[in-house]
Design goal:
The chain has helices at 2-19, 27-34, 141-154, 174-178, 212-218, and strands at residues 41-43, 57-62, 66-71, 75-76, 81-88, 91-101, 112-119, 125-134, 162-164, 169-171, 186-195, 199-206, 231-235, 239-244, 248-249, 255-257, 269-272, 277-280, 288-296, 302-307, 323-328, 334-339, 351-358, 367-373, 385-390. It is mainly beta and 394 residues long.
Length: 394
Amino acid sequence: MKKRTIYTTLLLWGIVSIALGQQQLPSNLQSILRHAQPGDLVELPDFLSTEFPKVAWKKTVVPGPQFLISDDPEYIRIPEAIAMQEAVSPGAVRLYVYNVNGVKEPQKIPRKITAVLKNTGKEELHLRMLKYSSQKPSTNYFQIGKQGLADYFGSQVNGGIRKVKPGEVIALDEQLEKNVVQYDELVHGFYEFIVDQPALIAILQTDPGKSGPKAFSEIDTLIPHSHVNAGRGIFPIANYKIDSRDTLSTAQGVQQLILADGNDDPWITGTIGVDRQPAKNAGNYGVMYDTSIKWKSTDGKGMALVTWNSRSADNQWCGGMGLTVELFDEAGVKTIKQMPAKHLITRKAPEAIVLGVYKPVPGKTVQEIKLTYSPPGASCLPTPLVLVPVDLDE
């Protein structure tokens, strides 16, 4: 009778714990995370869920550059056309190019997709590139998305200052000028630069043998926006600071931090074109999230940070997920990691990607997990950051 009472009490406590959100990693899976390295792809059967309790966080807008994105249309169907055109003010600019050669009528033909800048000011413009990421066109969108972010995070541009005369048009990226883009290949460019005169930035598609500046002077077709894909336009917000509102405890069980879901974390809004029609970046692609999660070990456990493709069953476009993050250690030293490290993507549960396994630092009551997250191109969102208490002893 006593054993049955104890069993019943434990069962009820388990039910109450789940109801309160105190899910724990089953003991047979503890060893998997305990020995995992950042970037490892692991399997956690019967564990991953979209119902984990959400971590409460606060979001602060961090001053940053004017942000431009070109992803509407994603597939440029017109052989000679401008896909995005926006005016920028003197100052810092971030530009995210995500466009595909979509010409198939009357036949599939190679194209050039490039970015140009026109000095619309009255004085000579000086352009200094701060960050540069330019990928070879490919149909492997996942790899381009991961590598593009990795190159952006690690970029150290040592080039000089480019001078642009009033009214002059230049190619922003000479590599895009050299690329030949076949049908269905993605062009992915990610740049941050400073200009000291007002300028016009345009993304266009043209013949591979024609320079971007020449094509810009000849093309009179600006493709109408359709408010699909991520979108296009100019946005006043480019950077966020994310902080957990409370210090998480390992005794609280599994929790998840959800960013870039369009609900708890709304899409940034801006404008399109000279008539300033409303725009949104559906995905917050290109936005940087400086993220800090404070936690403490109240039961001797460590904390694992994992993610998984929680959208795999939604539609045919959510069959894989890969990402790149900046991770910071206790000394603030940065490591750039493509996730998963030894595979292109993770597909669906029970697969999970381990971002890190953190041990409590002796003599330090509150620990901190710090990373820079940016929504991964080509992957469905959100990217749940799942915090899992882990036994550190065998």
